[in-house]
Amino acid sequence: MSAQQTPIAQFWTLTLMTHLLSFARRAAFLLAPLVVAVPALAQQGEQPPPPAVTVVTLHAQDVDLTTTLPGRVVASAEAEVRPQVAGIITERLFNEGGRVEEGDILYKIDPASYDAAVAQAEASVAQAEAQVKATKREAERLETLSKRNVISEQSLESAVAERDSAIASLQAAEAQLQAAKIEQDRTMIRARLSGEIGRSMVSPGALVTASQQSPLATVRNIDPVYVDVTQSAAEILEFRRGNREAIFGKGAQEVKLKLADGTVFDQVGQLTAAEPVVNPLTGVVVLRISFANPDKLLLPGMFVQAEMPTGQAKNAFLVPQEGVARNRRGQPTALVVGEDGTVDQRVLTVQQDLDLFWVVTDGLEDGDRIIVDGLQKASPGATVAPEERQDDEEAEEGEGKTPAPENAAPDAAAPEDAAPDATAPEEAAPEGEAPETEEQSSAPAKAAPDAAEPSAE
Fold first, then answer.
1. Rounded CA separation 333/226 (Å)
2. What's the Cα-to-Cα distance from 178 to each of 82, 166, 171, 173, rounded to whole Å?
3. What is d(CA 95, CA 80) in angstroms, rounded to the nearest whole number?
4. Angle at 359 between CA 354 and CA 364, to 5 degrees
5. Residue range 20-53, pLDDT digits in tens
């Protein structure tokens, strides 16, 4: 039994040694480029150049602080058109969406019944005038007779009373005539406000009634317009505590407006009023801002954002937001490059954001250079090669010029390109050995069965 196991053990031993030899050859093939590259780097004897980073030089300045408040546009004046008399609409005299002036006729109501009422009132006035004339003559005649003691005083007093009653009746008839004319004039529905009129809610032939609930149309004045914004009661307390001028100022404060598409409105507004009550449901105060709207760009109901001034930060820095990060404690930090190119990390005090910048009030000094591009290449204490970031105009002017350092970079990289050539012969040698390794590894495998055949017999 032991004699049969000896050839099998020899077979597995030979197979294991073959695989170990193949693994050693392959490892030598992979490590050959590294063995050649290490002496090449040692021969150069040069340190890699410091990484290039983009910096921005900061200078202290006085920054106006603002707060962005949401709001809605409302018309500065609005009037709903309603009829004051009942009747059938016979004509519409305006263009929907156009401009109307105060006093323009908008609708006409059938005036037939009101013309008849005016004629009846005129007849009553004429009858009253005739009665007044008759009573006046009678009273004058009786006065003459009374002087001659021909009639009694009672007759004279009765004539005078009839005359005064006739005059009062005339005045009542004239009043009725005036009321009838007013009703007749109201059959022509006029604009009571100059502005832009909306769409008509009725058409000719429709029956309308006096003071009906639904308006016929609406006229709005949208030049100027108001923007109603909301501010929390907590923020408004700072202005109410002995600093009321912070809201209104000695003069009106200028407010900028950002539209729904992100653009800034070309007109500045003035803060005109603050509602002296806090909404109990939302806890906010409504502020009203007036804006000139000559191009009719702002429409009532439009959502906007108002940038209101809240104060001024003295000797602050406008730091690009891409140059500020957060540490593990959540504090804002920035990497500052010193005169010798050494990187230093600073903890900043950020007041607020302003467009694409952070308003920093502490942590920086005038003339500091912070890294805004290449942050992954820099770390505190490391040495970098700072390059000042160019403005858009300077970058366009420099497009036609190629900087010298960029042209010199390929020459410096030439030794690295030559390194693979030095390793080429080493790579070729293993390629020639690869077939021999496969043949040698397969030869013992073929010999093993031959050695096993006598034992099987």
1. 41
2. 22, 18, 11, 9
3. 16
4. 155
5. 777 777 766 666 555 555 555 444 556 788 899 9
